[in-house]
Amino acid sequence: MSIVIEPIKPLIGGRVTVDKAHLTDPEVIAAIRAALEERGVLVFPEIDLSDDEQLALTDALGGRGNYNQRVPGSDVSAKDVYKITLDRSVNNEPDYVLGTFFWHVDGATMDLPLPKATLLSARTLSDAGGSTEFANLYAAYDGLSTEDKRLYEGMKVIHTVEASVRPVFAVPSQERLDRWRAIAHAMEHPLVWTHADGRRSLLLGSHADGIVGMPNPHGRALLWRLQQWAAQPDFVYTHHWQVGDLVLWNNQGLMHRVVPYTDTGRVMHRTTLAGHEKPGQVAAEGSFERLLEVG
Hints:
Strand content: 15-25%
Structural class: alpha+beta
CATH class: Alpha Beta
Keywords: Dioxygenase, Iron, Metal-binding, Oxidoreductase
Protein name: TauD/TfdA family dioxygenase
Pfam families: TauD (PF02668)
EC number: 1.14.11.-
Family: Belongs to the TfdA dioxygenase family.
Shape: globular
Number of helices: 9
C-alpha cells in the first residue's frame, strides 16, 4: 500500500507518509478512515495541499460540511474552505478565533450532527505560539474508574456559545451577550457520549456551561476537573506546525485548543467532514437561565 501511518504517542496521534498523488485512492482513504478512529489525530507533514486538493480529500473521506455561515470571517478561493486568521481585514470580529485558545469541540453549540472531522492546513505561521493541542476524550473516558464512569453516566451538560467566548472578555457588554445568545440555542448533551459504534467518550470543552440539575458552582467545578483530567499528558498530542502541514482529527472524540498567539499574519485553511451523529438536543427552555443561579 502507498501509505504508512506511524503512532506518535501510545494513546493519540499518527504520522502519515503518503504521496499526495495517491491521497484519494480507495485503499489510502480506507487506511486514513481506520487510523482516524484508532489514533484520533493524523499529521501529514508538509504535504502542501492546495484548497482544491484539501477539498478532494474531504469529499473522499465522506463529504464536506460548511459550519461557518454565521461565524465572522470568510470562505477563501474555494467554497467551503474557511480562513482562520486574526487579520481584521478578513475577520472583523475575532472573538471566535480567540475562543479557540481554550479547549473545545467544533460544533458542540449547534443544533446539528457534530462535524465528524476537521482538516486544517498551515499557510502562514505566527512568530510565537500557534501550536495546536489535541486531547483524546475516548482515552479520558476509558481511564476513569468504574465508580466515576457509573457516577457520570446519565449526566446532562448545557453547552453555550456564550461560555465558549466568555473567557475572552473580562466583562462582556450586554450587546455582546445578546449577540452570542442569538447565534445558537443552548444545547444539552450527555457528559458521556455513547457513539453509534458503541465506543464511549467524554464530551467536554469551554462551551460546557453547567450540569443539568446541579448547582452552578458544583457543576462547573466538576466539568473543569474533568477537563483537566482529559488534558493530562498521556491523552494529549501537541502539534508544532510547519508551513504545508495538514492535520486531520476526529472531532467527535477529541477536544482541541490553540497555544495563544498575537500575529495577525497567521493563516490556516480549514475544511470540515460532515457528521451524522447528534449526541444531544436543544436544551429545555430556562435551562441556561437556571445555570446562572448560584444555589
